[in-house]
C-alpha cells in the first residue's frame, strides 16, 4: 500500500490525512505518531520511530504550522514558529529521505513566494511569520536542486477556514477577531484545500516548483531562485545537529 507521511493532524493536515485514509501516517500532537513539532528533539524521535517501523514512504506532505507575530523561544532556545513551520520539516525530511524512492514526492504547504526576503530574525510583526515562510520557499528550491529526481512542491492553499488566525499569538485581539471572521467567512474549507496537496502527493507526477490553490504552477520569484538557499541549508544542518547532540 502507498504510504504518505503527513505532518499536522488538524486543519489542512487533518483533512489531507482523512482524504488519504489508510495511506496516511500522521505526525503531530494528535497524530498516529505523537510529537510536538516545535521540538527538534521530539521531531528527531518521531523520525527514528518512523524509520524503525517503515522501510518505504512514497511521499511526505508537511502541513503543520502556526501564525504568530511575536517571537517566543522553545526550551531548546530556538524561535518556536521557525521550528514548527520550517526547521522541523528540514529535520524530518532529511532523516526520512532514504525511505523515499528516487522519484518520491515532497509537498510543503506554505506560502509559495508570497513573502519578501525576511531572512533576518524578528521579535515582533509580520517578519516573524514571514521568516518561516521564506525559509520554506528557499528550502523547496534547494531540496529540488540537490535531489533532481524527486518531485518537490511548495504549495500555497489560499485562505482556508482553519483556526490559524483564531489561535495566533502576538496579534492584537481586535485584529485577530477580524482576521478570523474573514477567514471563516470567505476561506475555503480544509477539506477543499486538502485536494491540492493530496493531488500532488498521489496524482500524476509533477515538475518541482511552486503551486497555487488550484495546483497550477506559480512563478518562483527571483528572490527565492537567487536567494541564500545554500546558506540556509548549512545553518539548518548546524542547528538541527547541535540541538540533537545536546538532547
End-to-end C-alpha gap:
35 Å
- Seen as an oligomer or otherwise, the chain set is single chain
Mean pLDDT: 91
Question: What strand line-up does the widest sheet have?
Answer: 3-2-1-4-5-6-7-8
Report the sheet-strand fraction: 5-15%
Radius of gyration: 17 Å
Q: Detail the poorly predicted runs.
A: none
| Major sheet attributes | 8 strands, mixed
Describe this entry's structure for a reader:
This protein has about 250 residues and is α/β, with parallel strands linked by helices. The chain is built from nine helices and eight strands. The protein has helices spanning about 10-20, 40-55, 80-95, 125-145, 175-185, 190-195, 195-200, 220-225, 230-245, and strands at about 5, 25-30, 35, 60, 105-110, 150-155, 210, 215-220. Helix 3 (about 80-95) links the parallel strand 4 and strand 5.
List the helices and strands and how they pair.
Blueprint: E1 4-7, H1 11-20, E2 24-28, E3 33-34, H2 40-53, E4 59-62, H3 80-96, E5 105-109, H4 126-146, E6 151-155, H5 173-186, H6 190-193, H7 195-202, E7 209-211, E8 217-218, H8 222-225, H9 229-246
Parallel strand pairs: 1-2, 1-4, 2-3, 4-5, 5-6, 6-7
Antiparallel strand pairs: 7-8
In short:
By secondary structure, the protein is α/β, with parallel strands linked by helices. Helix content is 45%, strand content 12%. α4 (126-146) crosses α9.
Index terms:
single chain, 247 residues, alpha/beta, 12% strand
Amino acid at each position: 500500500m502507498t504510504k504518505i507521511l503527513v505532518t499536522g493532524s488538524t486543519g489542512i493536515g487533518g483533512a489531507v490525512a482523512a482524504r488519504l485514509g489508510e495511506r496516511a501516517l500522521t505526525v503531530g500532537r494528535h497524530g498516529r505518531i505523537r510529537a510536538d513539532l516545535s521540538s527538534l528533539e521530539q521531531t528527531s524521535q518521531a523520525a527514528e520511530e518512523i524509520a524503525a517501523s517503515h522501510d518505504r514512504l512514497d511521499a511526505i506532505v508537511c502541513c503543520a504550522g502556526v501564525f504568530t507575530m511575536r517571537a517566543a523561544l522553545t526550551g531548546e532556545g530556538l524561535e518556536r514558529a521557525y521550528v514548527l513551520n520550517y526547521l522541523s520539516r528540514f529535520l524530518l525530511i532529511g532523516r526520512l529521505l532514504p525511505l523515499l524512492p528516487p522519484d518520491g514526492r515532497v509537498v510543503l504547504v506554505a506560502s509559495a513566494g508570497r513573502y519578501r526576503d525576511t531572512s533576518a530574525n524578528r521579535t515582533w510583526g509580520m517578519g516573524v511569520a514571514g521568516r518561516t515562510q521564506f525559509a520554506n520557499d528557499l528550502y523547496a528550491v534547494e531540496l529540488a536542486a540537490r535531489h533532481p529526481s524527486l518531485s518537490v512542491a511548495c504549495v500555497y492553499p489560499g485562505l482556508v477556514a482553519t483556526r490559524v488566525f483564531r489561535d495566533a499569538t502576538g496579534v492584537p485581539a481586535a485584529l485577530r477577531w477580524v482576521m478570523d471572521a474573514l477567514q471563516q467567512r470567505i476561506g475555503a474549507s480544509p477539506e477543499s484545500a486538502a485536494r491540492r496537496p493530496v493531488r500532488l502527493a498521489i496524482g500524476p507526477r509533477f515538475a518541482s516548483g511552486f503551486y497555487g490553490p488550484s495546483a497550477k504552477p506559480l512563478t518562483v520569484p527571483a528572490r527565492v531562485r537567487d536567494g541564500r538557499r545554500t546558506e540556509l541549508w548549512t545553518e539548518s544542518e548546524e542547528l538541527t545537529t547541535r540541538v540533537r547532540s545536546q538532547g
